Amino acid sequence: MSVRDFLLTREGLHSWLSRLARDYPLIAPVEEEKGVITFKQVGGPQEIVFDCAPSTLPPKEWFLPSTEELFAFSTAGGGITLQEPPGPKERVLFGLHPCDVRALLALDPVFGGTYPDPYYLGRRKATIIVALSCTKPGPYCFCPAVGGDPVVAAGADLLLTESGSSFAVKAMTSRGEEIIQRYPGHFAPDEEGRGERARQELAGQLAGMFAFLPDLRGVKEFLDGHFELPYWEEVASRCLGCGICTYTCPTCHCFDIFDQSWDGARGLRARCWDSCMFSQFTRMAGGHNPRPTQKERVRNRFLHKLKYHQDRYGLGGCVGCGRCVAKCPVNIDIRRIIGDLKELASHG
Amino acid sequence: MRETARQLLREREVGLVIGYAAGSEAYWVTPAFIKEEAQADRLVWNPFCVNSLAKYLINYHHEPYKVAVVVKGCDSRALVRLLQDNQVQREKVVVIGIPCLGVVDAKAAALKIAPGTRILGASVTDGEFLLQTESGTLSLPRGEALCAKCRYCENPTPVLADTLLAEEVAAEPAANIYAEVREVESWPREKRSAFWDGHFQRCLRCYACRNICPACTCRECVFDQTDPCWVAKAHNLSENTAFHLIRAMHVAGRCVDCGECERACPVNIPLRLLNQKVIKDIKELFGVSTPGSRLDEMPALGMFATEDPDEFN
Amino acid sequence: MDNPLKPYPATIVKITDETPDVKTFQIVFDDPGVWDHFRHKPGQVAQISVFGVGEATISITSSPTRKGLLEFSVKRVGLLTGALHQLEAGSKVGIRGPLGNHFPYEEMKGSDLLFIGGGIGLAPLRALIDFVLDGENRSHYGQVEIIYGARSAADLCFKDDLFNRWPHMPGTKVYLTIDRPEEGWNGHVGFVPSYLEEISPSPRNRFAITCGPPVMIKFVLSALQKLGFPDERIITTLEMKMKCGVGKCGRCNIGSKFVCVDGPVFYLSQLKELPPEF
């Protein structure tokens, strides 16, 4: 059996990241604007924010861009030619937290399945994922409540865990092993199980650090039997109907498709993020709207997170990153929603 | 506030009170819609009551009952705005005004508080923001803790209210409200362009700025129209810029400078700065006050006078 | 479909005016080889592209037994359908599909069929009507009855089928109605659900398949239940706003079902399990 655990010094990490940035497009969290951390291509480790709170925006942009071309069309010569853009080059996505990796696992069956989406899947295939265990949860994090674990990142190729002055590195896939082999001299084999001990120790420390862990037990079962609840009206009365919660969510993936053309003969078909919170989202050309008010829209979003995604794919639709909590301008907080539903469930 | 709400509901003077309830974190509040007297205890007032609640009135304008709404000074300008646009009928609103020394930017407060610290109370005085926690009282200078809009407040006391819940607070002597705007104005064109491009390219087009805006009350927004499609759905610098500039022009003369757009923005685009530039220019051109300050002063771009500047002549 | 979001290039070969705001488009694939793996089934839908304008989900109104071409009947209601109505024969379009499930025509074998349509809602039913009436298929099915209504005589779609073709097929009856009396109309006047109750077809060994405006469907479903049709033999096809058509873009869900992949065809027994968001 090949060694799958390695150790990397802090200096080693920096020089490895510098090499990665030369050899691949390296994408990592950066502070794009004061207080706004997003995943961007970087020139080297000096630009990367290693701090552990979740980034302002999730890395989903790198798999489902906010706007992307599906194909170009041209009607020159009497026929129609459709040309898809070239697929992505192999790249390294560094610094995803375990919740963000889990979010990708929740998106995979949406874009896979009977009708595989070549754009998303092409990017997934082209991306080497280097995850980073959390060393301190953000103020709104609640991943353990939805089955997550801040030091486990199944789905990543490599998992790095900070431990004192070095990093424990775990290769989770053969692709992860390959990338370690490609950079000899950076990684020392971890033969004494230090990485495993470090992860366990960290998990123990983190356990008590989550400020607000809602109790999800029984909530889905309650929602299975209760679609119509006056409670949703209360939530909707506060909701602005903006797209913040959906656009900052790592598992929200709704999109719109549109054409752009300047002369009718040539143009693009593209897709861009859309939000189930928007009033026109389900409005049909004839005017009929199956979710006509914010009540139906708010209910749809929370049911999607807490029930529908589970029903359809057997996976939770919320990974507990707390981004929607951090950013909602009217403090609609999914942790509270879960708590309120739990309360409603217990009162029959 | 709770007593006022209870009384209004008990005497059936209103069918609904819109106020603030405790949020999920001590430095947040959430809008509360109180319909029963017994629920009035949920209402709170503290320095974190930053949301403007006036726009919620629009959702109730078809209801047969009157609605009471809690407003700070800046929010009262939003209410005046809505009244002037006939979005809200004066006789259907009971205005509960709260003179205010300023509200606190939760982002700034959250940064200063160690995670997990329990907050016991908070207050704003003339000079500082005090936060009582388990581990003692934390004091921050007003300038650091308060929302930017509160640092120079034109209307600490609501300009319109049926009841005032505290002593009036006098406005500070007119300070240099538009210092930041002047600063940006002084930059060369290239620097200004790079500044705004940098911000607009981050825009997610979540429309929180529009949806929270008390001047944005169109039944169908131009940005939602698909035929004709004025601004494409694509998220890119050109479309994002068009969105923000069109929006700034649409609310010109009606933006009450409540700063809610900037507070709501998830990616920290300085939208208030953009709108303040327009307010400042309109004030200079037409000699009007900040929109919403006076019920009897119609929006500068919603009326005309023979002495208006006529630069096209 | 190696890329489910990329349409097949196709050409409009014929356009028929059905009503003042409905046109039927006959479309053939530019690459005739596409037909061999397209293989749609009655009840399925497709996305029609007008390049530069966008796409719309339209039910395929021709039976798969009509080889080599597809027909779509399109009511002019929005941007895309408006653009489609402006096109002429010879225009290039794109076709993406077939999408969604289909009518359970295997299960229906040996049964009588009752079709109840309103307005443009006859379009998806027509694919199944022509399928069961076609050649050898006819012997597998019992009586075929079609109850169909529109606002006025001019708004009746597929007039040639309704007046000249279907009534003359063996074991087939057509009942027509319009909403309000008008000059020159000697037929029935009244709404479809009440006409259905008047005709009062027996639920014995019969499937009822309905499509029309949401309000008509609602009353037809309750009329059918009153007549004693079991929920497992009442079938409808739903219309929702769709973009991707392949279960990804997230807008046509009713609860955890997507109309684009789990529908558009639903038994009433299935609909009753879903939240009322359609």
Task: Give a verbal description of the structure.
The complex is a heterotrimer of chains A (348), B (313) and C (278). Chain A has 348 residues and is of the alpha+beta class. Chain A contains eleven helices and twelve strands. An eight-stranded mixed sheet of chain A has the order 3-2-6-7-8-9-1-10, with helices on both faces. In chain A, helix 7 packs across helix 9 (294-313). The mean pLDDT of chain A is 93. By secondary structure, chain B is of the alpha/beta class. Chain B has a domain at 176-313. Chain B contains eleven helices and eight strands. Chain B has helices at 2-10, 73-84, 106-112, 142-145, 148-151, 179-185, 189-200, 208-212, 237-250, 260-264, 271-286, and strands spanning 16-22, 29-34, 67-71, 93-97, 119-124, 128-133, 136-141, 163-164. In chain B, the strands form two sheets. Chain B has a five-stranded mixed sheet. Chain B has a three-stranded antiparallel sheet with strand order 5-6-7. The longest helix of chain B has 16 residues, at 271-286. Chain B is globular, with a radius of gyration of 20 Å. The mean pLDDT of chain B is 90. Chain C has two domains: 8-99, Beta Barrel (Elongation Factor Tu (Ef-tu), domain 3), CATH 2.40.30.10; 112-237, 3-Layer(aba) Sandwich (Rossmann fold), CATH 3.40.50.80. Chain C has helices at residues 33-38, 79-86, 122-133, 159-165, 192-199, 214-227, 259-262, 268-271; strands spanning 8-19, 22-29, 45-50, 54-59, 70-75, 92-99, 112-118, 144-150, 172-178, 188-189, 206-211, 234-237, 253-254, 257-258, 265-267. In chain C, the strands form three sheets. Chain C has a seven-stranded mixed sheet with strand order 10-9-8-7-11-12-15, with helices on both faces. In chain C, helix 5 packs parallel to helix 6. Chains in contact: A-B, A-C.
